[in-house]
Specification:
CATH superfamily of the largest domain: Histidine kinase-like ATPase, C-terminal domain
Number of domains: 2
CATH class of the largest domain: Alpha Beta
Number of helices: 11
Largest sheet: 5 strands, mixed
Shape: rod-shaped
Strand order of the largest sheet: 2-4-5-7-6
Length: about 375
């Protein structure tokens, strides 16, 4: 969990806190356990150098215990996180820390025996009691460090979870806003009096000329509006659904523009089960219509085809209207980019040359 690693205490900070804390606790707890022990009665009557030597040995001991606690905690965070099996994690960390304390105590005793072997005799009852007290104090210090480590980890984990939750909420809010923008952009056809007037004018003409064709036109007209009203509110739709909608939308465009536009659609069957934000293809066609002229002498050619199962290309020929340029996308193309980004999909790519303009869409293999 990268965020937890960044927000929890670093190992340098832990060393700076643990070693002095362990050193103070070592003497404080030892004194509180038996304040009338001979060790404390004679403590300040020893020579200065003996006290310094003892403090250095104790400091090294506390440093080793702290390092062992930090190392064990870091390793277990990777192999046995608290979120998986908390009881097992607690028992494992406690056991390893106790084992580490015992090993460090053994090495410490071995070092003292090696240094003072000429002055050592048989251990007295006082020595045995002090040794047992030392073990108890060391384990208490170790458990205190475990508690600090665990508290730091859990606090950082909680903070990280809150940040992730806040990010998800923000992403959801942004996605809703982008979806609303897409709806407004797509549903502007519903509010556009020119589109409504043209569609109804064509419908009235077709009814007079060919009732069957007029009926089909009205059916396609209702399908377009039904899709806009229902699916524009979704985050993603299947490519198959989008193409069905597009079929009706293209039918209306052809009867409005006539031979000034042509469509060529070849999509692989395996691509149709993949997903994209709704109205993506409609917005790209609308973008092409907005910036290019449509006349029968130089028709606008729009191609939609798949190069791979997850790659869809929307390509149109270029016959730019005067005073138009490819940098003016309106809100259609930026909205598509924004929705792909919010859905954590790969952003569409734009490629253009003197004759064509292509938008490469990377389809998603899951529905959101």
């Amino acid at each position: 969990m990268p965020q937890t690693e960044r927000t929890s205490l670093s190992n340098k900070v832990k060393r700076a806190v643990f070693v002095p804390l362990a050193f103070v606790l070592f003497y404080l707890v030892s004194f509180l356990l038996d304040p009338y022990a001979t060790f404390w009665q004679e403590y300040f009557y020893r020579s200065f150098w003996k006290l310094v030597t003892e403090w250095i040995v104790s400091l090294v001991f506390c440093f080793l215990v702290s390092e062992a606690s930090i190392f064990i905690h870091s390793r277990l965070n990777k192999t046995l996180p608290w979120t998986d099996q908390p009881v097992k994690r607690l028992m494992t960390e406690a056991m390893f820390n106790m084992l580490a304390v015992m090993i460090i105590m053994f090495l410490d005793i071995a070092f003292i025996v090696f240094i003072e072997k000429e002055h050592l005799g048989d251990p007295s009852n006082e020595d045995i009691k002090n040794l047992m007290q030392w073990g108890v104090v060391s384990i208490m210090i170790s458990f205190t460090l475990i508690a600090i480590n665990t508290g730091s980890y859990l606090a950082a984990n909680w903070k990280s979870s809150e940040m992730i939750l806040a990010q998800h909420k923000l992403r959801e809010a942004e996605l809703k806003q982008a979806s609303v923008e897409a709806q407004l952009n797509a549903l502007k056809l519903q509010l556009d009096p020119h589109f409504i007037f043209n569609s109804l004018s064509i419908l009235s003409e077709l009814i007079l000329e060919d009732q069957q064709l007029g009926y089909e036109y009205s059916e396609r007209f209702s399908r377009v509006y039904r899709f806009l009203l229902v699916n524009s509110k979704k985050n993603t739709v299947s490519l198959e659904e989008e193409l069905k909608f597009l079929d009706s939308y293209i039918f209306l465009i052809k009867h409005r523009i006539g031979s000034g536009i042509s469509f060529d659609i070849h999509v692989a069957p395996q691509s149709k089960s993949l997903y994209l934000p709704p109205l993506t293809l409609q917005l790209l066609i609308e973008n092409a219509l907005k910036h290019n002229s449509t006349n029968k002498n130089s028709p606008l050619n729009i191609k939609i085809y798949s190069t791979e199962a997850s790659v869809l290309v929307v390509e149109n020929s270029l016959s730019l209207i005067e005073n138009q340029n490819l940098r003016s996308f309106g809100i259609g193309l930026p909205n598509i980019m924004n929705r792909f980004q919010l859905l954590q999909g790969k952003l569409p790519e734009i490629k253009k040359d003197a004759a064509t303009y292509k938008v490469i869409i990377h389809l998603m293999d899951y529905e959101q």
